[in-house]
Amino acid sequence: MPEPWTTDVRRFGTIDSTNRYLLDEARAGAPDGVVAVADHQTAGRGRLGRTWEAPPGANLLVSVLLRPAIGPAERHLATTAVALAAVDAVAALGAPGLSDVSVKWPNDLVDPAGRKLAGVLAESDLARPGADDGPPDPVVVGVGINVNWPGDDTELPPELRGHAVSLRQLAGGTVDREALLDGFLVALGPRVTDLGSPSGRLRLAGDLLSSCSTVGTRVRVDLPDGSFEGTATGISPEGHLVVATGEGTRTVVAGDVVHVRPGS
Ligand code: BTN
């Protein structure tokens, strides 16, 4: 078995949020390579200020502390590295039904039907920009993977039915969370190494393109100042989404992306 990216794995039965924990550790000077895993979060954080909830002991809730020597323009590639490691880890479980998981840009893992299997949330401490001579600024990237919950759609709140899925549903049986975590930490090694070089970052962007179900689809992009529609045509070298619209090509750095089904 290849080596995991780190052995500094801190485990919690219950915590408010593994992302919050690692951001505090980063503020206190923790180096990159710290991982936090929880059985249960009481204040799990999702994107856009949402909460992230899962029953205790059911899913993989894990955050990693990175200090990539990259500028703000390439920061999305930290999310990409973690999302791709999660895709790798799911495929490495080896069960039929788990090899077709893709990335819905910017940060979801979805099954072939577009149901959400996992979400990735990157947070950095913008209040404390790093000193020029200090270690690179931290970015904490957390991922929540639906492992054994839901067992089926009836366990989901009505608004999530048809929109979320678990590895257990896809694999047709219970999945070992520890095996998934081990695979994730092994897969992270080369992905984090790639973050550290220009050629590696190009590889991350290329692998994202290969794994991204958003590219080639009609999308609606919701931005703070409005929405627009177009066809997602590619991924930029920085990991951003390239969208062709009637008025030309736009590169989306951040935003909520909805896959628009023909006729909807
Ligand atoms: C999303 O909104 O899709 C992102 C969800 C990210 C959830 C994970 S669970 C582990 C880590 N800790 C948190 O508080 N959030 C992330």
Structural class: alpha+beta
Count of helical segments? 5
Q: Name the beta content range.
A: 25-35%
Q: What is the radius of gyration? A: 18 Å
Task: Provide a descriptive summary of the structure in words.
The protein is 25% helix and 28% strand. By secondary structure, it is of the alpha+beta class. It folds into two domains: 9-211, BirA Bifunctional Protein, domain 2, CATH 3.30.930.10; 218-259, SH3 type barrels (Roll), CATH 2.30.30.100. It has a seven-stranded mixed beta sheet, sandwiched between helices. A five-stranded antiparallel beta sheet has the order 11-10-9-8-12. The mean pLDDT is 94. It binds biotin. Biotin is lined by residues 17-19, 41, 44-47, 50, 52, 61-63, 107-108, 119-121, 142-144.
Question: What are its keywords?
Answer:
alpha+beta; BirA Bifunctional Protein, domain 2; SH3 type barrels; 2 domains; seven-stranded mixed sheet; binds biotin
